[in-house]
């Protein structure tokens, strides 16, 4: 497992977990600058808190996370808007619970000590 963070235009941080070795390596290539195309984060939200992602009442299901270059508009939302409208998510707003924040920018990999505190 590895944990990464991204920000959106608000500058707030969102932490997600990756379990798939291929995705972990992909995230590391994005952070190193080796990958410059598919750099935005997408996945299916789960409407519950995750200890590693404080401050948010939802998290991304690790088994659904991918990275993208462009995506359809219907899955785009800021972190704040999603948090404020979480009760409406997974219907007409973010159908299928898929979230693809267009302004997402991978910023860092978290250390074990950051996760276990």
TrEMBL record:
<feature type="domain" description="BP74 N-terminal">
    <location>
        <begin position="2"/>
        <end position="111"/>
    </location>
</feature>
<dbReference type="Pfam" id="PF23621">
    <property type="entry name" value="BP74_N"/>
</dbReference>
<dbReference type="InterPro" id="IPR056422">
    <property type="entry name" value="BP74_N"/>
</dbReference>
<protein>
    <submittedName>
        <fullName>Calmodulin</fullName>
    </submittedName>
</protein>
<dbReference type="InterPro" id="IPR053344">
    <property type="entry name" value="cAMP-inducible_BP74-like"/>
</dbReference>
């Amino acid at each position: 497992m590895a944990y990464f963070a991204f920000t959106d235009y608000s500058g707030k941080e969102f932490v997600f977990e990756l379990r798939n070795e291929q995705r972990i390596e992909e995230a590391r290539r994005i952070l190193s600058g080796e990958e410059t195309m598919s750099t935005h984060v997408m996945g299916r939200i789960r409407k519950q808190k995750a200890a590693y992602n404080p401050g948010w009442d939802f998290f991304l299901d690790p088994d659904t996370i991918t990275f993208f270059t462009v995506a359809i508009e219907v899955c785009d939302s800021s972190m704040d808007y999603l948090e404020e409208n979480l009760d409406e998510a997974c219907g007409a707003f973010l159908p299928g619970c898929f979230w693809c924040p267009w302004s997402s920018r991978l910023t860092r990999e978290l250390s074990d000590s950051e996760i276990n505190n």
